[in-house]
């Protein structure tokens, strides 16, 4: 299915993210495999949101105190991110959404793709436990807003309803 077929002309960010969430539910509601669901979630964001050069997940490895690359769309990325480094590390460490208008001004920024200019990271927290982060990068400074933070938080809540996180982290 082409990007144009799935696109809607959203008049507001809320309308756009409602549409994205409806598409996400359709993709993952009957699929039990958590890795497949995260892969489709990353692909959906990359397909439907404008002006992205990377969309994906980093998953927590508590034994290493680090995030490890999960399903994504975009150029190859950094494989491991310590919790004391980068925007993803900050989101996992603090449990707070990170909206960075200019990644080059962020202390400790990790440049996996030199083309990235702005970033938003949503922590994946379930029952007080950090499971990982959802990370979106853009080649445009100031691409992400508080409305994106709200919309992507809703997207993450949808993931929490359908992704079998325990299966994903079993044996780790």
Under the CATH scheme, which class? Alpha Beta
Net shape: globular
Q: What series of H and E elements makes up the topology?
A: HHHEEEHEEEHH
Q: How would you name the CATH homologous superfamily?
A: GAF domain
**What is the helix tally?**
6
Radius of gyration over C-alpha positions, nearest whole angstrom: 15 Å
Number of domains: 1
Estimate what percentage of residues fall within beta strands.
15-25%
Walk me through this protein's architecture.
The chain has one domain: GAF domain (Beta-Lactamase). Helix content is 38%, strand content 24%. It has helices spanning 3-6, 13-28, 34-48, 86-94, 146-162, 165-169, and strands at 54-61, 66-74, 80-82, 98-100, 118-126, 129-138. Strands 3-2-1-6-5-4 form a six-stranded antiparallel beta sheet, with helices on both faces.
The gist of it:
By secondary structure, the chain is an alpha+beta fold. The protein has helices spanning 3-6, 13-28, 34-48, 86-94, 146-162, 165-169; strands spanning 54-61, 66-74, 80-82, 98-100, 118-126, 129-138. It has one domain (3-169): Beta-Lactamase.
What is the fold's blueprint, element by element?
Layout: H1 3-6, H2 13-28, H3 34-48, E1 54-61, E2 66-74, E3 80-82, H4 86-94, E4 98-100, E5 118-126, E6 129-138, H5 146-162, H6 165-169
Antiparallel strand pairs: 1-2, 1-6, 2-3, 4-5, 5-6
List keywords for this structure.
6 helices, Beta-Lactamase, 38% helix, single chain, 172 residues
């Amino acid at each position: 299915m082409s990007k144009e077929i799935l696109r809607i002309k959203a008049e507001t960010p809320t309308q756009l993210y409602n549409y994205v969430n409806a598409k996400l539910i359709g993709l993952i509601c009957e699929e039990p495999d958590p890795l497949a669901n995260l892969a489709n979630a990353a692909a959906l964001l990359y397909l439907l949101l404008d002006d992205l050069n990377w969309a994906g997940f980093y998953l927590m490895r508590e034994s290493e105190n680090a995030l490890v690359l999960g399903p994504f769309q975009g150029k190859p990325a950094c494989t491991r991110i310590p919790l004391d480094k980068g925007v993803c590390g900050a989101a996992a460490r603090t449990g707070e959404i990170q909206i960075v208008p200019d990644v080059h001004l962020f202390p400790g920024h990790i440049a996996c793709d030199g083309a990235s200019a702005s970033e938003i990271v949503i922590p994946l927290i379930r029952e007080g436990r950090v499971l990982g982060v959802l990370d979106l990068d853009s080649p445009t400074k100031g691409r992400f807003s508080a409305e994106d933070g709200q919309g992507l938080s809703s997207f993450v809540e949808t993931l929490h309803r359908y992704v079998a996180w325990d299966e994903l982290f079993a044996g780790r």
